[in-house]
Each structure stands twice: as C-alpha cells, then as structure tokens.
Automatic annotation (TrEMBL):
Belongs to the sigma-54 factor family. Residues 319-478 form the RNA polymerase sigma factor 54 DNA-binding domain. Transmembrane segments: none annotated. Residues 115-302 form the RNA polymerase sigma factor 54 core-binding domain. Keywords: DNA-binding, DNA-directed RNA polymerase, Nucleotidyltransferase, Sigma factor, Transcription, Transcription regulation, Transferase. Residues 59-70 have a biased composition (Basic and acidic residues). Residues 56-78, 96-119 are annotated as: Disordered. This is RNA polymerase, sigma 54 subunit, RpoN. One of its GO terms (biological process) is DNA-templated transcription initiation. InterPro entries: RNA_pol_sigma_54, RNA_pol_sigma_54_core-bd, RNA_pol_sigma_54_DNA-bd, RpoN_core-bd_sf.
Amino acid sequence: MSLELRQQLKLSQQLVMTPQLQQAIKLLQLSRVELLEVVQQELMENPILEEVQYQEDEQTARDVHEEANRKTSLNSEEQSMIKNADWENYLGEFSSSSKQSVHHERETPEEMQSFEARHSSKPSLEGHLFWQLQLQDFSEEDMVVGEEIIGNLDSRGYLQATSREISESTGAEQEQVKRVLKRIQHFDPIGIGSRNIQECLLVQLEALNEDDPVLTSLVKEHLEDIEKNRIAPLLKKFKVSREYMQEYIEVIRSLDPFPGSSYGSEDVVYISPDIYVYKYEDDFIILLNEDGLPNLQLSSFYTGENQLVKDKKNKQENEYIQEKTRSAVWLMKSLHQRQRTLYKVMQSILKFQKEFFEHGVSRLKPLILKEVAEDIEMHESTVSRITTSKYVSTPYGIFELKFFFNSALSMDGGGHVGSESVKAAIKKMVREEDPKKPLSDEAIAAILKENLDVNIARRTVAKYRMALDIPSSSKRKKFF
C-alpha cells in the first residue's frame, strides 16, 4: 500500500469563540466580589480605561459653605481672639494629657504606621499552642518533642502521629513523649493533642475534677448509645434514675469533642446582594445594586482631540492604543450586557415566583432553567451562568438566585408544589414538635399529605431532612 499526499477542499461549520466572547461569558458567572477584582485589574492594566469621578457642583458647595459661615459668624473681636490664642498652652493646662505626651503623639502619628502595625493577625491553633509551649518550664529536649506534637495536629486538634513515630523523629524516649503530650493536652483548649474522642472527653473531665465512675464509663464505652438515645440499657446497667442519667448526659454534651475547630482557618464571608426587590403598594420594584461598581469611560487624553499626543504617536503606539481601546469598549459593553441579563432574569423569576415574594417560602413554586430561558428568549446555559453566585435581597431575606429553581412534587389535586416549600414545612414541623415525642419520617409524610395534599414518600422526607441537617427522631428525642 503506497502513501501519497493530496490537496482537497472541505467546507464545514464550527463555533469559534473569540477572546472577547470568552470574556463576556466569564463576566456572566462571576460573583460581585470577583467582578470588582476583574474591573480593578483592567483599570490598572489598560491606560485607555478610567473611572468617572463624580464631583460636587462647585457653586452648590460654595453656597453651602457660605451659609454655614453665616450661621456661625463671629465679630471681629472674637475672630482676633481665636487667631491669636495660645491653644497649645490652653490644652496643655486643661487636657488630660501633658504637653510632652501631646508632642510625642505628634511625632508618631497613626497615619505614619503601616497597615499591619495597626491590625492584629487572626490567631491560629498552631501559633496559640506554640505561645503556651514557650511559657512552660520544658527542657530543650522536651521543647523539641512539644514542637513535633503540635506540628502533627489536624484542624480538629487531634494528634495524627503515634508516640513511636514522634520518638523516632525526635530521638526521645516514648515515655518522654507521653509525658510531654499529657501536659500539652491540658493546654488551652483542653483536650488538644488527643488521639480519639474518648481520650479528648476524659481529659476535659479530668480538668473539671469529674471523677464519677459512671461518667467515666459512659465516655469510655457508651458514647454511641448516648448518640442514638439508647437510654434504657444504660439505666438498667448503672441502676440510676432517668433524671440522674440525664444529668450525666448533659455533662458529656457540654464538652467539646473537637477542641481545635474554634481556630479554623476559614474566614466569614459577607454577602452583598446583586439585586434588591422591594414591594411598593401592590407591585414589586427591582433595583440592581450598583454600589461599589466603577463607572467606566474612555480616557479623553488618548482618544480625544489631543493634538500633542497625536503628533508624538508612531505606528506601534497607534496599534497599541487601538487594541486597548477595543478592549476597554468591549469590557464596558460586556458589563452592560451582564447587568441587563441579570435584570431580565430577575424579572422572569419574579413573574414565576410572585407568590413567594407575597407570602414567603411556603409558596415557592417548581421552576426550571428552561422556563426562564424561554421567557427571556435566551439559552439555558446563559441563565445558569447569570444565576451562579448571585444573590437577591427580598422581603423574606437574602437568597441565591439558584434557590428559586427547584423540583416539583405532585399533589392529590393534580397540581405541583416546590421541593423548597416542602423543606420549609418540614423544618417548621421539627421546630414546633414536642421534644419528648419527636416526629418520625412517616409521621411527617402523613402530616404533609393531610395538610398540603403532597404525595411524598418516607425516604423522600428522610432525604430532605438530611439536606436540612436535621437529625433523626431518635437523636432529637430529649429526656427531662
């Protein structure tokens, strides 16, 4: 079989995404914080792009200033006294600080200090423990062992290495490792460096001077029974009343099984809504949150009638300015299109979910992306991107736009109800139930069928309950 080279023509169609189109799609799915970062980065890199700075009308400002001066006008004698008064001596005699301290403060003003010097860093578990380790009367060998122990703690505060492994890495005896570990376990927080949950709780009981044998036995052998509320076998084994057993259980539940979790590295994230929906009389008003978003424009220095700049520009500079101008114009168009799409999607959601905005979560209807996409004549992928990481402030709280899209459950009357409405109903039932007789999944399903005419299976109730982070009825049961 011989090989040969041939030339042939082939006509085909393919989708080619330009960099500008990729940027526009990317801007759709960015959150508000991410969008601000992208815009600020473009402002730094593109000299053609600049932010419009709103300035107060000079005549208005002058009128306000003159009116303020008129109301607080002083006669010539008072003005002369203010001008010639020795304010430094006056303050030195009557202020709470002396002249020397005032002079010292002027030498080191707060504005001259760095940002890091005026703000403390967030404490970490490792740093907190190392600080306590330095305060102990440990020998150099014990310090090495202590540092190795602290370096092998996980985010919960549990030790992830055995005494033998620490002994081999530090060259210390295992008895020395155990002795140092026992002291570290009594650092703040108590129980840090434990190997398991039983050891952690026993260390905390020891710190509380709780030496009751029943309490110790419950921690060592019956934590699973307490977790699953299997109380009857415990009453039979320890021969105590239900009231005493409840007191023991309350003591155990007051302990911290994960002492290191309070020093987690995660920061609190504050949500700024992208949209506000207000009710005005019998209608709703949609407002886009433009606060903090820069108002962009093209720089007149490069694009205007600046003859000096034009005379000095060569071919390469012209090409650079044209490229940056196209980039700036496309960014502004993309931002406008993003806001326009966001507004249209919110309008459509308000149209489909108006009963939610009138009455709350219990009236949330089933909704899918396709319905909104068809309503605003856009593709489903566009709706999916614009609803990602976007939040709306409603009369009933702040919700992600994805929240309004939920599956449907059939009703006896032939209609449908949204799954989020059913979840809200389940959450309300659990909140109002009798702690001594919590509702089972079967009972919740029966109540939903009776009150809301919803056909829902027990396993579906269990799935929704787990999604809401609600424990089972046996774990919710309380003994008083």
